[in-house]
Amino acid sequence: MTLAAIILTALLELVMPQQFEASWTQVRHSPLLTEDLVSSGTVVLREPSYLRWEIKEPVQSVTEFTGDTPRGRFKMPTQKDFAAVEEGETIVLEPLRRDLKQMFRRITVTVDPDTKMVQSVFLEGTDDSWTRIEFKDIK
Question: Model pTM?
Fold first, then answer.
């Protein structure tokens, strides 16, 4: 699982309802690559602290986090690690922790105004890289 996916896991726990299932498409852009990387899959979030992140394309893999899953040396972000500003249908998160500031300038979460479900997440890196994840078929 990439660092972006680990951060996304923490974000999902911060801004998602207690249960969430969806298909997703992720586009990763890096100035070091000649073209963007596109992947797709599914995500399942269940309380307490269960997340299943399945990549279906281009290479299949499944990662599951449970409350018992060790997270290594990386400290999972919490709400206090971000300054959050709501701007209509978006929530802009700016990292406060030094290690997060080294990875991200900001994270923009777009929420459906009717269902309050997350529609997309845009992670803006510090090196002109970015990752956009769009959710569909949300349950």
Answer: 0.80
